[in-house]
């Protein structure tokens, strides 16, 4: 008996070490046109508990699998489970499908990637510390022009744990979002009535009040109740909508008319499960006519690629005026002043700056496209959602400021001008200034720029990179143009001792940028990591001082190598300390009360945004302003202080019974990324005003004033 217990304990220990407390999926099975695997929402399961295990399928481009009702042709995906004794599997949770036409047929299908969650319940006597295997035989039909039946045998090792299991770090949030978006009952009232050769389906209820009905569609669970390929005419009402469907076999072909019409009503606002009974039309389900025609994709860019390139160039020009770029303007000004009266060197610096801007813009764009191609929901400025990047930038800004203050010297930048070193080019410094300007500007989107980037990310990579190139050229154009205009350069005074004073004075915006980045770091990681980043800053400053001391000793002909090495070592240790703080830190925990009430100014508080919150407030007929923001977005912070924090704004909100919702994108959030994409945006800020009693939101400018906000609130409330 003792030996048996020892063996079991050893097995549990080995399994625990292998799994690291997480569910372990079996190998991905490629059946020819579909890659399949099982993934779990939780890292384990408690005895008698229930978790969701999802079938994840990556479908080859151009091919599709089928929903529970495949439509005019096809077969739904089926899963046959082999589970331990006493375990059970529930019904598949089907995400909303897409419509796929092939000739006269219309099918309900899945393309690209789909996750179909299934609730798995463990036996009540499952032993914590053990790891059990779940097996699923999956059968599906995958079609393009031809259809091929395929299958996959999948497995998942699932630890049994005591207490509540933790979410799976990779799939927990993904499956949670699939479950949140999956159609489910929402208290909608629905009736149907056969009128000759038309089947009227009327639906009313909270989520539909004031919602955008363009493109609304009813996916029935039964394949025999409607003609799938027929158009579904939409009639709007104050409380919902009425769809005119073409009845199918069960109604007009000799079948048995159903007592209930069950399926999914999909709209832009969401998808819900509806169960309609026979009855007369509902009040508020019609009377407002069909919805307005949907705008063509990229409507703001009617010129297509040409319009996107023009908007990107203009956006890049305006980006120079955004608050994000102000700290780096000091470096640009100092760099330019150093060669104001040496036209050839000024032009060389202008071209080096241009090269730095273009190279960095394209590098960030390439990284953004690669990450999005991998399935991550990210947008412009995505790198600043990483505490590791923020920590590195904070230290870099500090070192740049110390360099401009004369603590140490790098290369032959402007600090040498006053000492007679103006003959040297400083090309490397100009390139670095261009690169740094782009990195700091990344949190911002300027007017025109948002639409151009939204267009770019819907295009093939070559076109997308072309739009980003136009943005880079616009951003670099003012500085480069000045270096090629002799008259503009001659307006600046000749180099001299004043340059050293200017350079040291311009260091202070860089100190401010470093402090701002430390604040952003604290917002992302919480106060526990703040001490570490501050200690790293002190260590980096000490290293820079040692390095500068070594430079002075070398200039005096004294020993300098040991001091220089110690300075470099201190800076390296500072970077390591900051990196460790960023990697180890976790996002700050927030209480429900804190999330629900964030101060935004005198008498005005912001509630946490979510799509469900917007729908609920719209159902109440409330006026809503949504602030898509981030701590690392300087423009966002300026707008919040200047335009959203005053007492007059609070009074306007109170007078209209309006609600301010804040969508904080400081840390990565795929739900916010999707919401931004829905409005053709890839970055913040974005301000939406939802009118009172429903309707489409109005998009406000990216640079706000208090008057703009008050006017928008009053107009939306009228």
Structural notes for this entry:
The strands form five sheets. Strands 13, 14, 15, 16, 17, 18, 19 and 20 form an eight-stranded mixed β-sheet that branches. This protein is of the alpha+beta class. 41% of the residues lie in helices and 22% in strands. Mean pLDDT is 78; it is low at 1-21, 294-302, 411-425 and 589-597. The protein folds into four domains: 22-174, Sandwich (Immunoglobulin-like), CATH 2.60.40.1250; 185-278, Immunoglobulin-like (Sandwich), CATH 2.60.40; 304-510, no CATH class; 591-717, 3-Layer(aba) Sandwich (Glutaredoxin). Helix 6 (343-373) packs parallel to helix 8 (427-441). The radius of gyration is 30 Å and the shape is globular. Strand 25 (686-690) and strand 26 form a beta hairpin.
Secondary structure elements and their pairing?
Layout: H1 2-19, E1 24-25, E2 29-30, E3 34-40, E4 50-59, E5 65-71, E6 78-82, E7 88-89, E8 98-102, E9 105-110, E10 113-121, E11 131-143, E12 147-159, H2 172-181, E13 184-185, E14 189-195, E15 198-204, E16 217-220, E17 233-236, E18 240-245, H3 249-252, E19 260-267, E20 270-278, H4 304-319, H5 326-337, H6 343-373, H7 387-404, H8 427-441, H9 449-456, H10 461-483, H11 486-490, H12 498-505, H13 507-525, H14 530-555, H15 561-584, H16 592-596, E21 598-601, E22 604-608, H17 611-619, E23 623-629, H18 634-643, H19 647-655, E24 658-664, H20 670-678, E25 686-690, E26 698-699, H21 706-717
Parallel strand pairs: 13-20, 14-20, 22-24, 23-24
Antiparallel strand pairs: 1-12, 2-3, 3-4, 4-10, 5-9, 6-11, 7-10, 8-9, 11-12, 14-15, 15-18, 16-19, 17-18, 19-20, 21-22, 23-25, 25-26
Helix pairs in contact: 4-9, 4-10, 5-8, 5-13, 6-8, 6-10, 7-13, 7-14, 7-15, 9-10, 14-15, 19-21
């Amino acid at each position: 008996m003792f030996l048996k217990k020892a063996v079991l304990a050893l097995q549990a220990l080995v399994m625990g070490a292998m799994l690291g407390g997480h569910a372990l999926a079996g190998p991905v099975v490629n059946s020819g046109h579909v890659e399949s695997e099982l993934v779990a929402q939780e890292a384990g399961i408690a005895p008698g508990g229930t978790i969701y295990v999802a079938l994840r399928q990556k479908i080859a481009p151009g091919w599709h699998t089928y929903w529970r009702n495949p439509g005019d042709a096809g077969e739904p995906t089926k899963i046959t489970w082999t589970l331990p004794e006493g375990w059970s599997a529930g019904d598949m949770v089907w995400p909303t499908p897409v419509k796929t036409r092939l000739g006269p047929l219309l099918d309900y299908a899945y393309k690209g990637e789909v996750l179909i969650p299934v609730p798995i319940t463990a036996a009540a006597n499952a032993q914590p510390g053990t790891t059990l295997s779940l097996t699923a035989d999956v059968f599906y039909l995958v079609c393009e022009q031809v259809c091929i039946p395929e299958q996959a045998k999948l497995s998942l090792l699932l630890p049994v744990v005591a207490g509540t299991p933790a979410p799976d770090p990779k799939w927990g949030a993904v499956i949670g979002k699939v479950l949140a978006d999956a159609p489910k009952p929402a208290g909608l009232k629905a009736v149907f009535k056969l009128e000759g050769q038309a089947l009227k389906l009327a639906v009313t209820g909270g989520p539909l009040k004031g919602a955008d009905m363009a493109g609304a569609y009813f996916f029935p669970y039964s394949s025999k109740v409607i003609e799938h390929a027929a158009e579904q005419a939409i009639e709007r009402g104050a409380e919902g909508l009425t769809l005119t469907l073409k009845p199918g076999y069960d109604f007009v072909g000799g079948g048995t008319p159903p007592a209930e019409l069950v399926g999914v009503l999909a709209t832009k606002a969401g998808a819900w499960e509806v169960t309609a009974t026979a009855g007369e039309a509902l009040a508020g389900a019609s009377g407002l006519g069909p919805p307005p025609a949907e705008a063509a994709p990229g409507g703001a860019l009617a010129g297509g690629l040409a319009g996107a390139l023009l908007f990107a160039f203009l956006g890049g020009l305006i980006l120079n005026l955004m608050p994000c770029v102000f700290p780096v303007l000091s470096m640009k000004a100092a760099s330019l002043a150093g060669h104001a009266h040496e036209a050839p060197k000024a032009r060389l610096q202008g071209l080096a700056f241009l090269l730095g801007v273009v190279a960095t813009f394209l590098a960030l764009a390439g990284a953004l496209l690669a990450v999005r191609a991998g399935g991550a929901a990210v947008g412009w400025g995505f790198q600043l959602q990483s505490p590791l990047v923020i920590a590195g930038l904070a230290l870099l800004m500090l070192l740049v400021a110390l360099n401009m203050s004369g603590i140490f010297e790098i290369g032959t930048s402007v600090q040498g001008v006053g000492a007679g070193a103006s003959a040297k080019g400083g090309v490397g410094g100009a390139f670095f200034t261009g690169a740094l300007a782009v990195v700091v500007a990344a949190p911002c989107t300027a007017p025109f720029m948002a639409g151009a980037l939204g267009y770019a990310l819907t295009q093939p990579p070559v076109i997308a990179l072309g739009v980003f190139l136009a943005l880079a050229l616009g951003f670099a154009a003012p500085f480069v143009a000045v270096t090629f205009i002799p008259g503009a350069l001659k307006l600046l005074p000749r180099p001299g001792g004043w340059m050293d004073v200017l350079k040291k004075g311009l260091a202070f915006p860089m100190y401010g940028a470093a402090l701002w980045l430390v604040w952003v770091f604290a917002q992302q990681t919480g106060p526990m990591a703040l001490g570490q980043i501050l200690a790293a800053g002190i260590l980096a400053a000490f290293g820079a001082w040692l390095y500068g001391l070594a430079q002075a000793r070398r200039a005096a002909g004294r020993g300098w190598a040991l001091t220089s090495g110690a300075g470099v070592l201190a800076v390296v240790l500072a970077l390591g300390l900051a990196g460790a703080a960023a990697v180890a830190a976790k996002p700050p925990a927030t209480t429900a009360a804190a999330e629900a009430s964030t101060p935004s100014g005198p008498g005005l508080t912001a509630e946490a945004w979510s799509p469900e919150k917007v729908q609920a407030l719209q159902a109440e007929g409330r006026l809503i302003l949504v602030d898509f923001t981030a701590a690392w977005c300087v423009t966002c912070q300026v707008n919040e202080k200047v335009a959203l924090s005053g007492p007059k704004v609070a009074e306007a909100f109170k007078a209209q019974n309006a609600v301010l919702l804040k969508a904080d994108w400081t840390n990565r959030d795929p739900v916010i990324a999707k919401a931004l994409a829905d409005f053709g945006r890839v970055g913040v800020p974005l301000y939406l005003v939802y009118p009172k009693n429903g309707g489409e939101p109005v998009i406000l400018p990216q640079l706000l004033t208090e008057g703009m906000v008050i006017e928008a609130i009053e107009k939306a409330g009228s």
